[in-house]
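4.2 Preliminary Data

To establish feasibility before requesting continued support, the project team ran the inverse folding procedure on a target of 109 residues. The structure was first converted into the token representation described in Section 3, and no sequence information of any kind was made available to the design step. The complete token record follows.
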């Protein structure tokens, strides 16, 4: 079946994952045999994996707050998911979650 433009539809599920440049430039090692901890080729070399970063899209600032939330339609009442926020994005991320009724608490790191 062809879609507009003459291309076949994109595969879904297990077939959707195709090799990426990261697979070639960062092959699995003995300490990481399935490539779980590989970084993409576009990852910045100055990023440190042990630093907590803000969850706002495109923000690379260190996180200073943890926003704990859950979606009551999906999660059990005791389940908590966490977004991290820098000083600049704490209010906007909290407002996004709060307007949906998801925000449970905000705690400084």
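Position-by-position output of the design step:
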């Amino acid at each position: 079946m062809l879609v507009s433009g003459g291309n076949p539809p994109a595969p879904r599920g297990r077939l959707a994952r195709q090799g990426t440049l990261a697979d070639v430039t960062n092959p699995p090692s003995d300490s990481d045999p399935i490539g779980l901890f590989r970084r993409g080729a576009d990852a910045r070399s100055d990023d440190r994996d042990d630093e907590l970063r803000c969850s706002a899209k495109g923000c690379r600032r260190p996180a200073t707050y943890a926003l704990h939330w859950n979606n009551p339609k999906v999660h059990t009442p005791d389940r908590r998911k966490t977004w991290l926020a820098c000083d600049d994005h704490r209010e906007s991320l909290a407002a996004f979650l709060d307007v949906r009724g998801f925000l449970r608490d905000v705690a400084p790191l």
